[in-house]
Amino acid sequence: MTVSTAPNHGSSTPTGAGPTRSPAGHLDLSPSAPLLLNPKTRTYTQQFANLYFNRLTSLRPHVHARAARKWHAHASAHVQRTLDIKPNSLVWFIGTLVRISPAAAQARKIWSDQDKVAIEDEYGRVVLEVDEYLSRNSGDKAVPLITGVVAAVIGTETKSGGFQVADMCFAGLPDPEPERPLAMAAAPNNHQEGGEWIALVSGLHFGSPSSKPLPLIMLAHYLVGNIGTPDDQHLMSLVSRLFILGNSISVAEDPASSAANTTATTTADDAYATLDACLGLIAKSMPITLLPGADDPATHLMPQQPMHKSLFMSAVNAGEGRFKSVTNPMIADWNGNNLVFTSGQPLDDVFKYLDPPSRLSLACHFLTWRHIAPTAPDTLWCYPYVDKDPFVLVRRPKVFAVGNQPHFETCLYDDNEGAHDHPESRDHAKVRVVLVPEFRTSGQLVLVNTKTLEYHVVTLDVDQGNGEQVDDEDAMDTSE
């Protein structure tokens, strides 16, 4: 086995053996409470219109504030409703974008050159003419126009009844919070300082025919410090918690025959047992937080509910608080830093709307929109909430990570307006955006310092005896 570590530019990998692991820090999952559904009270008879209404209601004040600053010279041009648009006059208003595609029935891509974009509020819908706007705003920084995004548009009504868009504005992220002392941020008082480094991995796919068991076992032993160089072991000693971002289990069943069912059941049992054994080994050394993914035994509607702890008794029995099964998405406070993690479905779904997209820039647009699942419920199935949209970002994240992506990518996101009202918080405004690759294909583990936003990429190259290596060299590109 070969271990290679790619440090962040300007940082150095710590050296020297570390005898003990860094304190675990404090993980507060209360921000994820709106994502938890009570199985005794949840119902599915309500209409999705409530979700769109609550999204527009929640984001409208933030979009208005940004638009008023951006278009301050045209403050009087604002109209409250689509019904108030005045012909031959420059106006701006706020609504929810709707992408109208004749190719909506296609399974993999739902875009075409004939797509139209409209915007709607509680009173009506207006078709937007966006060709000129898009021609002026191209490239990765151009914000995609997809269904479910709340935006402000400024322009004029056309003779055909459409709306010629001159510019657009989105909610952006909440203002950064002043950095809090750890003693204030991480109550209760019995939690020690530390816990700055976290480990991110996704796509373990225990039980999949294409997922080899040896790299997965090696990963567990590397995380606990049983293998690797002294520098590797010291680096792992700084990591306070492991986050697994979905797709831990991947068991394909063939119902064609009873014999096939018996084999599939045996394979599933073995996969769960092996995963549980690995998690139990890791949990004795560092706490684990497990998100469900598209292939995991969990609800498939967003937000996915936590996988049942009975599947992971070895990890549960490692000690109180050593293992947490959480929702997907997960929003948590980690030592005063807001973490927002998903297992990848929202990004993969938005990916259908674009050609050719950049996944990293697309992930950054989620922050521009202040929403982590904009295409739900249109093309991404989700629970029909009545009184809220829990996917709206309430706090500015420090780290935004998306699991199960084809390659590792990362950048520091800054929306340039986040410190408008709090210039003293400028240093804390940036967000570390991380696309975490599938471990099955990349063999990669991502380490992030939640305070300094440094990162390291660890690649485990395991020779399977046939000359193949479980890694992807292209994913080692860590350029900003």
TrEMBL record:
Cite the residue spans of the region called Disordered.
1-32
Limits of the DNA polymerase delta subunit OB-fold domain = 47-98, 105-167
**Key words of the record:** DNA replication
Transmembrane residue ranges:
none
- What terms describe the molecular function in GO for this protein? DNA binding
One Pfam family name is: DNA_pol_E_B
Any one cellular component term from GO for this entry?
Answer: delta DNA polymerase complex
Bias type Polar residues, positions: 1-15
Q: Where is the DNA polymerase alpha/delta/epsilon subunit B domain?
A: 198-409
Q: Which GO terms describe its biological process?
A: DNA strand elongation involved in DNA replication
**PANTHER family from the entry?**
DNA POLYMERASE DELTA SUBUNIT 2 (PTHR10416)
Sequence similarity: Belongs to the DNA polymerase delta/II small subunit family.
Report what the protein is called.
DNA polymerase alpha/epsilon subunit B-domain-containing protein
> From which source organism is this entry?
Catenaria anguillulae PL171
